Amino acid sequence: MNEPSGANKPRLKTRAEFGTWMCEAHNEVNRKLGKEVFDCAKWEERWRTGWKDGRCD
User: So where are the chain's domains?
Assistant: First the structure.
């Protein structure tokens, strides 16, 4: 990733804000690679607490 600036700077006020920012950055890379984007409303379940059904992705 390039040096973040302006609207792309990390949002660090809360864990939720940062998690959403990380997910959006992840999706930006996925778009450039032609990959599927992830629903950022589910970032915490995917990358922090884990899926409720116990699966790994």
Answer: 12-49
Task: Please report the DSSP string for the chain in residue order.
Answer: -PPP-GGGS---SSHHHHHHHHHHHHHHHHHHTTPPPP-GGGHHIIIII--TT----
Whole-model pTM above 0.90? no
pLDDT tens by residue, 4-15: 555 678 989 999
CA distance 23 to 28: 9
Task: Go through 16-53 and write b for each residue having 16 or more CB atoms within 10 A of its CB, e for each that does not.
Answer: eeebbbebeebbeeeeeeeeeebebeebeebeeeeeee
